[in-house]
Specification:
alpha/beta; 7 helices; Rossmann fold; three-stranded antiparallel beta sheet; about 260 residues; single chain; about 20% strand; seven-stranded parallel beta sheet
């Protein structure tokens, strides 16, 4: 795992986006197609803004999969991840093919089976992810299942995760937050050739410390990233405040 820390989340997002663009363009050169997984949430704001401003990516040669989605809310809901991705990514750069999770499908398990059949035919070149306040990876809350093989699974959201959604302003009350979601599984995320993980804000600092210093454990789901050979972890200084002693150098930090 390569970790870089930046003074601001805007700097963090720009450097992470530059790396993402490099990986996407590399895949396009190699096989005329780049397959990526897009995450949502407040941790992705700066990253996606920077990424969609990079004009050198041939987005028509990309295939996008969706990391996770709430069960039971429509695409028009302010917290819908389909809406988020359309507004912040899809409608800006128009990837060649887009596969979104239908969170309000009548049968969530059948929806998992639908997207599982599609993604099973693809190699993921790069996944964009974050780390939750409870250490979750996608919507895999602790204790996460490290062994389930299905690419997409139905997840029960824990209270800490649901409170984070209220804290970020997606819902007004805890009662409004759905209790279930469809999420990409840990095993599927770890199949990605590359993983770019962006984590801003001091509210994530304890999770960063736990996942990078503690045991690799389902109780710190994002700790599994330490087992992947090509993870690029980008933090702002606030997310890193409990983990590293650092010195500012040329816009980044070392420890």
């Amino acid at each position: 795992m390569k970790t870089e820390i930046y003074e601001t989340k805007e700097e963090m997002g720009k450097v992470a986006a530059d790396k993402a663009a490099e990986l996407l363009k590399e895949a396009i050169r190699e096989k005329n197609e780049a397959v990526f997984v897009a995450a949502t949430g407040a941790s992705q704001f700066e990253f996606l803004e920077a990424l969609t401003s990079i004009s050198s990516i041939d987005w028509s040669k990309t295939v996008m999969f969706h990391l996770d989605e709430y069960i039971g809310i429509s695409e028009t809901h302010p917290a819908s991840f389909r809406r988020y991705l359309k507004e912040r990514l899809v409608n800006k750069v128009h990837p060649g093919t887009v596969y979104l999770i239908n969170g309000d499908a009548e049968d969530p398990q059948l929806e998992c089976e639908r997207v599982n059949k599609i993604i099973s035919q693809k190699e993921i070149d790069v996944s964009f992810v974050g780390i939750g306040e409870n250490g979750h990876l996608a919507f895999n809350d602790p204790p996460a299942d490290f062994n389930v093989a299905d690419p997409y699974i139905v997840i029960e959201l824990d209270e800490a995760c649901r409170r984070q959604q209220v804290g970020e302003g997606w819902f007004s009350t805890l009662q409004e937050v759905p209790r279930r979601a469809i999420s990409m599984s840990i095993k599927q995320i770890m199949k990605s050739r590359n993983i770019i993980c962006t984590v801003p804000d001091s509210r994530k600092a304890q999770a960063v410390k736990n996942c990078l210093e503690g045991n690799i454990s389902p109780y710190n789901p994002a700790s599994i990233l330490r087992k992947h050979e090509r993870v690029f972890l980008f933090l702002d200084k606030n997310a890193a405040e409990l983990k590293y002693q650092w010195i500012l150098i040329q816009g980044g930090f070392r420890w």
